[in-house]
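Predicting holo structure, N-succinyl phenylglycine bound.
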Amino acid sequence: MKITGVELRIIRMPLKSPFTTSFGTEYDKVALLVTVHAQTRGPDGDLVETVGWGECVAMEEPLYSAEYLTGAAEVIRRFLLPILFAAGDTLSSEKVGHLLTPVVGHRMAKAAVEMAVLDAELRARGVSFAEHLGAVRDRVPSGVSVGIQDSIPELLDVVDGYLAQGYVRIKLKIRPGWDLAPVRAVRERIGDDVLLQVDANAAYTLVDAQLLRRLDEFGLLLIEQPLGEDDIRQHAELAKLLSTPICLDESIVSAKAAADAIMLGATSVINIKPGRVGGYLEARRIHDLCVAHGIAVWCGGMLETGLGRGANAALAALPGFTLPGDISGSDRFYAQDITRPFVVQDGHVAVPTGPGLGVEPIPEILAAVTVTTEWIPV
Ligand code: NPG
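Done. Tokens:
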């Protein structure tokens, strides 16, 4: 495959309601889309034009991770694309990660570029993401992430609403001052049978171990990323004190980091986010590693548009994804998605079956949310 040009596009989509986590409140989703235009050789040797879409999950500000949106655009434009352009017609999706190794870090930027190349390649071959990655299911259970609310009654109303829509697992965002009381109230309201987990987004330190231990009484599926991104050893210490399983998110930036965290006893469940780990192919490697170690995995979410949501659903259909992911319906965040919407039916989201991502932006809707576009010729 040979890239002939790339478009970088920034879009802004209003959220239906503000989304508050321990690191801030989002009112809009700003996303960077990467469209790769390429040529491949068809089965009879003809040149075939193909287009692939990638979505970069970096947020506007570096609060969840060191990467941020306009920084990712700069890295893609200035450092990543020249490497892929130089590969000429020897490029393939499997080579992208390796070719980009000289650039240190910037995994979200790399993931977006690899996703677009993979999509272009698979569309040309008529193969879906799900089939390529090794999916074994045609639908995946849908969990929902509930942001920090202004009051416990409001939280209970929001949770009731999601359960009525069929979500099979509730994840509550927590932070110091919004932890034991909301979790207790929700557990009492929903009963013991509904899957419930919490996500601290690195808001605590090991000094809070006694407080976090009090979450054990609520029968949580897991506690996600209680401590800092680089606190792997401290997570291992915390794991000895809690009966609630620890699940790492921010700390797992690669298959190597996952291997270290598993061997240190820092995590017994892993949230796999393709953007955070550098792409869907590294995400699959982490899945394989976790299956080998008996570590449960689930697919995280970063408020993706239908593009990333479709790819995440495909990944979550791999056999090791035994827990419901943060793969909600498009209407969890957006009045209108840029692709056909993903809907939750019987608590599940269907895995796209068409070539590549199996979904594409609807031109008028995409145009309406576009802030900037930039064409980068080879
Ligand atoms: O359903 O897409 C979703 C959101 C799930 O809570 C969610 N994501 O920490 O996992 C997280 C959180 C997040 C969102 C993190 C955006 C970073 C950016």
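The chain has a mean pLDDT of 97.
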